[in-house]
Write a structure and sequence with these properties.
By secondary structure, the chain is mainly alpha-helical. The protein has one domain. 37% of the residues lie in helices and 5% in strands. The protein contains six helices and two strands, in the order H-E-H-H-E-H-H-H. Strands 1-2 form a two-stranded parallel sheet. The radius of gyration is 16 Å and the shape is globular. InterPro entries: AKR, Aldo/ket_reductase_CS, NAD(P)_OxRdtase_dom_sf, NADP_OxRdtase_dom. This is NAD(P)-linked oxidoreductase superfamily protein. It comes from Rhynchospora pubera. GO terms for molecular function: oxidoreductase activity.
């Protein structure tokens, strides 16, 4: 889960059943071969970060925190680790939350290796119940 894959239906189902969500790679594992720049180079997040004097990562992590999602943000950089912890003494405004809600959604991991003409899932749409 991230700002670019917010999964509102899943969040509602989990809330209904008392299940807590954990976001693995909530910043898109930026810079890794399997990662994505969809979050760290997102114009909406960059805009909010610039007017707030925050980093894009802080805005993305704060949004997850406000969604009551736990997160695992990996970094070996001490300064980034410190920055990532600086999300608890401020809140996103309603206007900022509305801007984030308009960010186009995109699944980073499609699951193509689980699709096969002879398997239980013939298409990626079938695998994800059409929610791509």
């Amino acid at each position: 889960m991230s700002v670019t894959w917010s999964q509102p239906k899943l969040r509602e189902l989990c809330k209904k059943h008392g299940i807590y969500i954990t976001a693995w790679g909530p910043l898109g594992t930026y810079g890794e071969i399997w990662g994505s720049n969809l979050i760290m180079e997102n114009p909406t997040l960059e805009y909010i970060a610039s007017i707030r004097g925050k980093t894009v990562a802080q805005v993305a992590l704060r949004w997850l925190y406000e969604q009551k999602v736990t997160m695992i943000a990996k970094s070996f950089n001490k300064e980034r680790m410190k920055e990532n912890l600086q999300i608890f003494d401020w809140k996103l405004t309603k206007e900022e939350a509305k801007l984030i809600a308009k960010i186009p959604q995109q699944r980073r991991y499609q699951g193509n290796e689980f699709v096969s003409p002879s398997g239980p899932y013939k298409t990626v749409d079938e695998l994800w119940d059409g929610e791509i």
